[in-house]
Specification:
Growth Hormone, Chain: A, membrane, MFS_dom, MFS_trans_sf, disordered N terminus, mainly alpha, antibiotic resistance
């Protein structure tokens, strides 16, 4: 009789399904934590006195930290134990959530979100990498699908959950909701998850991690602070210069590394490059819209937080429907026409949305949000799948890490850049000519501030001017998004390979005397 190994015994342990359930619950929380904050932004602007720039940092602090630390966090789990690092990540996330419920000014809230970003960077990649030690090949696909679907399902739930909480409790409840769910996840990991590691994985490169975190942080700082300080101010120019130097140093260091943490050389694969570009652009626009729309729906449209969550569902619904449809279309036509069509639909939706007017009603908004969601689904889902299909199998681990990192960077820059465009246009066009200096500053800082000043001073004309200025800013952003989507659609139509599912990926061009067939690189992704 064959001996049952320890790994086989773990894979037969009935408790593994309870552990999977806890992981699904944890991922669901992390999924809706990406969007739950958006419906709270107008409330936080009023109750915390946060400016538009501070609101951008509240959202971006989480994403910047997550994007910068995701790869090194995954490598820590590979080397020192995935279960151990997963528990540590959930603990850090829990600490950030608890801290967020106890503070009442924008600065500490930004700090709390950054701490939660550190925890998420550990949890999300390791939540998938522990599954092979729990499930055999015949069950693993179901487990992976359950974990990934729970995170995807959390995103449309976020605005609804946030809306319900904000309609009945204070803004800190959006942090408090994380506490019991994450605590359950920690308990399940402690008692149910087996330990696993991969000692052969690359070492964490502390210098590369510092370059990426500081470089991305400096870039986002410059974009967010530019509307208030001026694009030509020494602080903004200095931050952009520092960002360029740090990110250039990161690229040089990673290209010279034998086993890089962030394998930039994968961008030599044309399919990976342009599919990643499409997925990153989609995340850029999606994140920017989710930052901008709640303020429009609540302050200009007059809805409450839960109503805002409901009004965002057409975009989420369009995305989910077209994501399923895109899989069938790719099998028939290949990824190039599907991704290109998705970007073209996104361009049309953005230009349609740029026609929004202050008194136009929700029906028109629902129309272009639905079309935008369809464009996102058609472009992003097949682009992500084709990006990984466009590289050799031994580079899939590296490719997935680079793809996820670039998408998160796209989301952070989308919030920073598109939010700054809205803030800059709004600040230039809101009429504060006859207001006292302090009231004028408050009105220019945010739409919520302008409405508060208008109510206190009995100036309905100021509220109308602020609404019109914000809609002008939103229209400018949508035109920019439309142009970006159109350029990306043209690039993918001309340059994107049309590799069908199951076809062999194209070989990458040789670099500096390197022979691709003789110099394969071992994947360093998480096992």
């Amino acid at each position: 009789m064959a001996t049952v190994t320890h790994a086989q015994d773990q894979r037969r342990d009935p408790r593994r399904w309870w552990a999977l359930g806890a992981l699904v619950a944890s991922m669901l929380v992390l999924g809706f934590d990406m969007t739950i904050l958006n419906v709270a932004l107008p409330t936080m602007a009023g109750q915390l006195g946060a400016s538009t720039g501070e609101l951008q940092w509240i959202v971006d602090a989480y994403i910047v930290v997550f994007a910068a630390l995701m790869l090194p966090a995954g490598l820590l789990g590979d080397r020192f134990g995935r279960r151990r690092m997963l528990i540590a990540g959930l603990g850090v996330f829990l600490a950030g959530a608890v801290f967020g419920t106890l503070v009442d000014t924008p600065g500490p809230v930004i700090a709390a979100r950054a701490v939660m970003g550190v925890g998420a960077a550990l949890v999300i990649p390791l939540g998938l990498s522990v599954l092979p030690s729990m499930f055999g090949p015949e069950e693993r696909s179901k487990a992976v699908a359950a974990v990934t679907a729970s995170m995807a399902a959390g995103m449309p739930l976020g605005p609804l959950v946030g809306g319900v909480l904000l309609d009945h409790y204070w803004w800190g409840s959006i942090f408090l909701i994380n506490v019991p769910m994450v605590a359950i996840g920690i308990a399940a990991c402690v008692f149910l998850l087996p330990e696993s590691r991969d000692p052969s994985s690359p070492k964490v490169d502390v210098l590369s991690t510092a370059y990426s975190a500081l470089g991305l942080g400096a870039l986002v700082f410059g974009i967010i602070e530019a509307p208030g300080r001026g694009w030509g101010s020494p602080e903004v120019i200095g931050s952009f210069t520092l960002s360029a130097l740090l990110l250039a140093a990161l690229v040089v260091r990673e290209r010279r590394a034998v086993r890089p943490m962030l394998d930039i050389r994968l961008l030599r694969h044309r399919g990976f490059l342009f599919n990643t570009l499409a997925a990153t652009l989609g995340t850029f626009v999606f994140s920017g819209l989710l930052f901008m729309l709640p303020t429009y729906l609540q302050e200009v449209g007059g809805t409450d937080a839960f109503g805002t969550g409901l009004r965002l569902l057409p975009m989420m619904g369009g995305l989910m429907v077209s994501a399923r449809l895109s899989t069938l279309l790719v099998v028939r036509a290949g990824p190039r026409p599907v991704v290109t069509a998705g970007l073209a639909v996104l361009c049309f939706a953005a230009l349609l949305g740029s026609r929004t007017e202050t008194g136009g009603g929700y029906g028109f908004t629902a129309l272009w949000l639905t079309v935008a969601g369809m464009g996102f689904g058609l472009a992003m889902v097949p682009a992500m799948d084709a990006a990984l299909g466009g590289i050799p199998a031994e580079e899939a681990g590296s490719g997935s890490g680079l793809l996820m990192t670039l998408r998160q960077v796209g989301g952070a820059i989308g919030i920073a850049l598109l939010g700054s465009l809205v803030a800059g246009t709004y600040g230039d066009r809101v009429d504060t000519a006859r207001l006292p200096a302090e009231a004028a500053d408050a009105a220019r800082a945010s739409l919520t501030g302008a409405h508060a000043v208008a109510e206190q001073l009995g100036l309905p004309a100021l509220a109308r001017s602020a609404d019109s200025a914000y809609v002008d800013g939103m229209s400018t952003v949508l035109v920019v998004c439309g142009i970006a989507a159109l350029v990306a659609a043209l690039l993918t139509a001309v340059l994107l390979p049309n590799q069908r599912p199951g076809e062999a990926p194209e070989p990458a061009p040789a670099m500096d005397g390197e022979t691709p067939d003789l110099a394969p690189r071992q994947a360093h992704g998480r096992q």
